[in-house]
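1st attempt posting a full record on here, be nice pls
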Amino acid sequence: MENKNMRHEIVSENSDIEVKFYLSVDEGGYVTPHWHNSLEIVYMLEGSITVTLENKKVTTLLPEEFIIINSRTVHSFTSKKNRALVLQIPSTMFEKYVRNIDLFYFTVDMNPKDETEIIKLDKIKKIFHDMYEVYNDQPEGYLLKFNSLLYDMLFTLIHLYSSKLTSKQINKNNKYLIILKEITKFLYTYHNEQITIHRLADKFGYNPDYLSRLFKKYMGLTIIDYLYEIRINFVYKDLIDTDLNISDIFEKHGCSNYKVAMKFFKNRYGCTPKEKRRQINRIILK
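the predicted structure (as tokens):
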């Protein structure tokens, strides 16, 4: 998974197929809460990754397990070194073949007890492996085979692993995501400034308490915690890309409360910024 800051992610499909499909090689890290207008399936090959959804459901994927992340569902990743296959299916592609696709909600049990369910799950896993083999090798006519596998998977997901939401539920979620999109964009842009909840509430025309509850409910963390997660992403990038003094990096990205910023950094990376820079330099020198 690409380690980017919180955003309404725009998923662009591969140039030769209607979806985005790739092998993710991740050294480990944290991806802040984000969402996109695509159904996302992450299939773990090696290592592990922990996915946190907006309902605070936490799932840790191990090798040969996968998770389905529904379109417009806020989610974040915490990962150790891993390799995974990632399939992202834009809603615009799905709409060509399935009416009212926005009403479909997909779930999958990675530990079924019933033998029939185990066989169904194994079928999905095999399709994933076959898709990667065909797309990676690209033999003559590979698009015919890849698309047939893709459509077989989607048909299976719709008929075996989906339920339907009401239009009212969909419209309510979309309304809140529009609000959150604007707020998170503002936080990302002005992360280096001293931002308070009251300032944010005034700007977007909401009661501070209401805005705080709304953000925590859908994003899974408070506004201030989220702001520091963004800041730490920028701090980490500057540790890698520049020779700036660490205190100057903190100040550059709005971390005026050094103690709080250090706590967030240690929680994420398990060490201080100074120790992390040493680790990075050792890797570069090898």
